[in-house]
Amino acid sequence: MRAIKIIEPGPLATVQDRGRFGFRDKGVPVCGAVDQQAYRLGNLLAGNLFDAASIEITLGGFVAQFLGEAYFALTGAQTEARLNGRPLSTWKRHFGRIGEVIETGPPVSGLRTYLAVDGGIDVSPVMGSRSTFLRGGLGGLEGRALRKKDLLFFGDAPREDVTGKIFEIPAELVPAYGASAVLRVIPGPQIGRISPRGIDTFFSSEFVVSNRTDRMGSILCGPAIALACGADIISGSAFPGAVQIPGNGQPVVLGNDCQTTGGYVLAASVIDVDLSFAAQLFPGATVRFAEASLDEARLAFLKNEYRLKTLREKLKAGGRKCEWT
Amino acid sequence: MAKLKIYFGGPAERAPLCSSDKAPEKWGVYPQPRVFLCGDTGVSVEFGDEIDPEINRLVRRLYKRLSTGAFSGIIDMGPAYCSLFIRYDPGVCSLERLLCIIEENLETAGGAGEGFERIVEVPVCYGGEFGPDIGEVANFHGIDEGEVAAFHAAPLYQVYMIGFILGFPYLGGLDSRLYTPRKKEPGNAPAGSIGIADRQSGIYPVASPAGWWIVGMTPLKVFDLLREKPFLFEAGDTVRFRQITREEFESYKNH
C-alpha cells in the first residue's frame, strides 16, 4: 500500500492541484494550489511529469506517517521540517520509507508549504480537478480539510524513474518570501473607478496583511483608497490576483477560492509570476504595489516557463550536475 | 493587427462610469466592445454598462462562439452581465492573437444574439421558516407578505449569469415594487433559499452566508454533484417561479 496517514493536519491542510478550469461559467472557482510556483516545483522534485495533486499545508503544524515508500519534496514557505526526527531541507527531493513520520513546524517565512509525492495524491477528480473547494464542499478528500487519521493514497501519475538520484532546486530559483513584499500589478480592469488621489495612495502606501487571510483572499490594512464614485458596480468577473477595493477602501488581494463574480471595483491585477509571493503573505507582513507593464509581465512569465522547462529537462537527464551523494 | 482597443479606464477614455460624470447614467451598448486587462493572463470584454438583455445576449454570443474548444490558449471563460472574462495562457496565445480571435467572433449589436430560450420552472414555498425575511421586505415596502410572494412569483426572470457559488443564478426581471437594498448584516441561507437584493433575485445552491433577503425556498436542487447535469441553470435560461404550499414542498422533498 502506498499511502500517507495524517496524524496532525495543523491549522489547515487540503489536497490541491493546478486548479479547476472550464466551470467558471457555472460559478465554480479555480481553486488549486495558491502558490502555483512552489506547487509545480514540488511536483518536479517528486519526479512527476505532470501536475499531480499535492498537500497544501497552511501555517505548518502538519504531522503524517508514510505507510508506503515514496519520493517526496517540501516546497513553499520555509519551515523547520523533520523526517523521523532528522532535519529535512525544503526544495529538495527526499525518500520516505514505511513507518517514517514527517513533521513541519510553523513557517519561518511564508504561509503555505506543499508536500508533493511521486505519483501524486490519489483522490477522485471532480469536474476535472482533484483540488479541494472548501466552501462548495467538493474535490480533494470529501470536499473538506484534512483531519487526523485521514488516509491518502498515492496515485500513479506518470513520473520519471528517479531511483537513487538526489535533486534540489538551484538556490537562485528558490523564491525568498520575506516579511515585506512588492507585488507588481497591471492596472485594471476598473482602475478608472478609483480617484486620482486613491490611485496615488494605492501605489505609494505600505499595507499590512490582516488576520483575515484565507484561500479566498487577503484583506490588507492601510490608508483607505478613495474611489471616484460608489463602490458598487454591476457584478462582473472576479479572479485570483485581482486587487479588490470595497467601500471601506481597504484592498483585498483575491485568492484561488474567490467567487467567480463580484460587485466590487477591481483596481489592478497581480502579474502571474508574482502570484506566488501574494500566496505566501502572512498576517503582519507588509505589501506595496508597483505598476508593471504588460510587456514586463509577459517577459517574466515566459522566462519563468522557460526556467521550469529547463529544470525539467535537467531532471529527466539526471546529469551529474543534479546529483549529490 | 486587431482593431480592438485596450482600455485602461483612465479619465480621458472614460465614458460615463458613474452618474457624477454628469453624463447619461446609462450608456447602453458600446459602439465597439472594450477590452480591459485582467493582469497578464486575462481580459474582460465589455459590451455595455447596464443590466440589459441585449448587452447580455452579446456577451453570451461571444462566449458560445469561443467555447467550441477550437481556440488553443483560452483556458477559462466566465460570462457576466455586461462582460466576458477570458483567461488565456500567454505562453500559447499572445494578447494580440487573442484580440484577433475575439474580433473575428464578435456579433454586431443589431445582429442575431442568443435568446433566453429554455424555460425552467421553479416551485417556491414563500414565507415562514422558508422565507424568514419576507416580513421585513413587506414592511419595507408597506405591503403584506402575500403580496411579496405574489409580486415575486408573477414575472418571468432571465438568468443573466451564474456566479457567487456553484450554480447561483443571477435573475433579472424583478417587479420594481420589490426593489430592496441589500441587508446591512449578512445572514445565513440554507440550500434552496430564494433571495432578493436591489433589482435582482437569486437562488442559493448550497448553504452559505447571504446578504440578500430570503423570501422563500425551492425544494429543487440547484446543484447536485450526483446528477447527470449537476447544475440546474445556465446563463440564458428563463425562470418561472410557481408558488407551492408547505405540503407540496414536503412531497417534493420526499420524491
Short description:
The complex is a heterodimer of chains A (325) and B (255). Chain A is of the alpha+beta class. In chain A, 15% of the residues lie in helices and 33% in strands.
Word description of this protein:
The complex is a heterodimer of chains A (325) and B (255). Chain A is α+β, with helices and mostly antiparallel strands and 325 residues long. Chain A has two domains: 183 residues, no CATH class; 113 residues, Cyclophilin. Chain A has four helices and 18 strands. In chain A, strands 1, 2, 3, 4, 5, 6, 7, 8 and 9 form a nine-stranded antiparallel sheet that branches. In chain A, a hairpin with a 2-residue loop joins strand 11 and strand 12. The longest helix of chain A has 24 residues. In chain B, helix 3 crosses helix 4. The radius of gyration of chain B is 20 Å and the shape is elongated. The relative contact order of chain B is 0.14. A seven-stranded mixed barrel of chain B has the order 6-13-10-11-8-7-14. In chain B, strands 1-2-3-5-4 form a five-stranded mixed sheet, with helices on one face. Chain B is an alpha+beta fold and 255 residues long. Chain B folds into two domains: 99 residues, Gyrase A, domain 2, CATH 3.30.1360.40; 135 residues, Beta Barrel (Cyclophilin). Chains A and B meet through strand 10, strand 13, strand 16, strand 17 and helix 4 of A and strand 4, strand 5 and strand 7 of B.
Low-confidence stretches of chain B: 11-25
Number of helices of chain B: 5
Q: Which residue ranges of chain A are poorly predicted, with pLDDT under 50 across at least 5 consecutive positions?
A: 319-325
Please provide the ordered H/E string of secondary-structure elements of chain B.
EEEHEEHEHHEEEEEEEEH
